[in-house]
Specification:
Layout (H helix, E strand, L loop, with lengths): L2 E3 L10 E5 L3 H13 L3 E5 L2 H11 L3 E5 L1 E2 L2 E2 H9 L6 E5 L4 H9 L4 E4 L4 H20 L7 E4 L2 E4 L4 E3 L5 E2 L3 H11 L6 E2 H8 L8 H14 L9 E4 L3 E4 L4 E2 L1
Parallel strand pairs: 2-3, 2-4, 4-7, 7-8
Antiparallel strand pairs: 1-3, 5-6, 9-10, 9-16, 10-11, 11-12, 13-15, 14-15
Helix pairs in contact: 6-8
Length: 247
Amino acid sequence: MEGEIRSGNIDARADRIVVADDDPAIRQTIASYLEEHNLSVTAASSRGELLRHIQTNEPSMVVLDMKLGQDDGFDILRDIRASSNVPVIITGHRPDEIDRIVGLELGADDYVLKPFSLRELLARIRAVLRRHEMGRTARAPERGGYRFEGWRLERRGRKLIDPSGDSVPLSRGEFALLLAFLEAPQRPLSREHLLQATRVHEDALDRSVDVQVLKLRRKLELDPSSPRLLRTERGVGYVFAARVQRF
């Protein structure tokens, strides 16, 4: 099943999904189901074919199996993230939490464990597409910011400045998460709240918030293993313990 699979009622504005799996039966099953639900699907059976689709067709999403022929899914995900922000859902057989964490750290938007129901996969695809559309159309904040412990977060340009005046780079997810904390300092925030605030991941993948918090700690804390600013609130989530001033 190579090339594009289209149903007759798909228009040019339809979301375009690339299903990358080296098992022809799985590709066909997923593609047929998604087409039945008004999604335009392209199949890819190899790393090269997938990357060509991304470069030439600008898909709305990639559903990527952890093993694509002889290639490792994480290596392919690195290739994708080197040049594209296309949403990626990883599918895989291994239930290890570490695989999901690594996938999210490398830039995946979700991880679905095989065997999965097609209905669940469709729901996750739609959820990720909604989050990306909301993020794309949301008006970027332009003025003001926050000060805390000598640090400064500027909304304009999404800049984080450390106490020595140096700029500290933040990913979009890290910026959104830090902004959520600074808007509610010294108040315990649940993972569910942080997921909504940052539009990161859903339910079974709420560990993605923990990953983002760990990354922020590495940038903000003198000793990330004993955090002063971004503390864990056992049984709840996290709290930003510093006093915060708006400007």
